[in-house]
Structure formats: C-alpha cells, structure tokens
Amino acid sequence: MGKINNVTVFILRGLSQNPKVEEVCFVLFSFFYMTILLGNLLIMLTVYMGNLLKSPMYFFLNCLSFVDICYSSVTAPNMIVDLLAKKKTISYVGCVLQLFGVHFFGCTEIFLLVVMAYDRYVAICKPLHYMTIMDQDRCNKIMLGTWIGGLIHSIIQLSLVLQLPFCGPNVIDHYFCDVHPMLKLACADTHIAAVVDTANSGTIALGSFIILLISYTVILVSLRKQSAEGRRKALSTCGSHITVVIIFFGPCIFTYMRPNTTFPGDKFVAVFYTIIASMLNPLIYTLRNAEVKYAMKKLWCRKVFWEASWCHA
C-alpha cells in the first residue's frame, strides 16, 4: 500500500496557549535571539580581525559561533513569530525542512564540540607538536568531516519522517518540527522508526558526551604536570568547554534517548539545546577566556574609539 498524505499543513502548539505568557515569551525570546546573533557575530568578527587569535582553537570557536547562529535561526524566528500569531501553522514541506535543519546543525555542533575537546587534548598533552598535528589543512578537513557527519545524520532523520503517511490529526505539541512529535501523528506503526531515531540521535548524543567526559578527564589528569600558570590557563579554557557541553548535551540526551516516548515538558527542555546554549556560548567563551577578552578590547578600541584617550591608557 502506498503512502497517503492528507496533511499539507501542521499546527504547532508552541510553548504556551496563554496569551499573557506568550507576550512575555515574545519579549524574552526576541532578546535571546538578538543576543545569539550579536554575541556570536562579535566572536566571529573578533577571531577574524584579531591577530592574536590565529590558533586552531579559535578557528573552531569561529566555526562554533557560525553553527550556533544557523542552528538557532532554524527554530527561533518561527517560534517568536508564532508567539503573537493566533494560528501557528507550518506547511508539510516547511516542517520537514525545519526538522532537517535542526538535526543538521545540531549534529554538526555535537561533532564540533568533540573536535574542540580533541584540540584541547593535543594543545595541553602534546604542546610541542600542537601546530604540526593541528595544522590549517587538517583543521579544514576535520571541519568538513563535521559537516558531512551532520548531513548524513540529518538525512537519516528526514528519511524516517518522509516514508510515513499523515492522515490527521495535524497538531504538533512542540514549537518546532522534530521526529518524536511527528511520529505520534503518523497513521502507521512507528515503532521501528522510533527505535532507529533513538539509535541514531541518542547514540550520537550519549556517545559524544561519554567521549567528551573521557577527553576532559584525561586533560585534567595531565594538568598535574603543568606549571601553575599553565594549569590556570588550561582550566579556564577547558572550564568553558565543559560548561557548554553540560548545557547542550544534558537536554539532548534526555530528549533523544527515549524511543517513542514524549513528555509535555520536552519542548521546554528543547529550549536549552536550541536557544539557551547558543546564547550562552559567546558569554561563556569570552568571560572565561582572557585572550578573547583582550582581543575584543583591542578590536573595540581600534575600530570604534580610535581617538578615545582611555583606549591608550
């Protein structure tokens, strides 16, 4: 029997159905999204213009900021508009494209965080060979690999949904289109699709998290051989990475390690890995990194307040 699709439009329930709460959320998430754009663009500009930030670590940080902007832009603008809309609708095509974008950029970010942990491992545990191991050509190939990995993952997720028939209802209890909420609406047995989704998304999230924990444990143990100044600098850098990992991976694992099971609170948990993490990344990496703060100050002084006396103090 061929696939039958009677549904051409989905209705997103959003974060809340209370108009007062939606107005507050509109202001809050508009601020969050503007912070994501401005914060990550500032980091990208600082890395691009700053002569002191030419190491592989800042190359990957620059890429992370770009991915964060793309990742949050897949869901946040549509969610913000829907908060004031009377009817929150999205076309079938728009829904599957949003699902593709969420998993493409989300998985790319996961692989990128693993790469950043490896970069810190090489820098701290093999400092004399760091620039040889992490040369620009290898960094470019690694970055290409993260994009390809994200693409393969998102194609698998997309194929799970495209093969399913949707004949109604068409109300998705979420603020964006994702695999689990859409599987609940399919008029077919979705058990296998749910297991494949968990085996794919869940394994990537949990497996990467375990790899990251092992990597940072090895790094922290190796710091005993470093000087006091070296330990302080390494702890500051690794501390920011670990903070990002916890904020991003905790909600991801909670969401995608449960086959064919959804909770009403899933959409609030999803806010952390789709919006909050992308907003906090620039703050975490700048406030905990003296080199980035110094480069930002130099850039700000040179480009905006060139003639101001306090810049030369």
Automatic annotation (TrEMBL):
GO cellular component: plasma membrane
Keyword Nucleotide-binding assigned: no
Superkingdom: Eukaryota
Regions crossing the membrane: 26-47, 59-80, 100-121, 142-166, 204-223, 235-256, 268-287
Domain G-protein coupled receptors family 1 profile residues, every copy: 39-285
GO molecular function annotations of the record: G protein-coupled receptor activity; olfactory receptor activity
Subcellular location(s) per record: Cell membrane
Keywords: Cell membrane, G-protein coupled receptor, Membrane, Olfaction, Receptor, Sensory transduction, Transducer, Transmembrane, Transmembrane helix
Record membrane topology: Multi-pass membrane protein
Family affiliation: Belongs to the G-protein coupled receptor 1 family.
Protein name: Olfactory receptor
Species per Swiss-Prot/TrEMBL record: Orycteropus afer afer
Gene assigned in the entry: LOC103211834
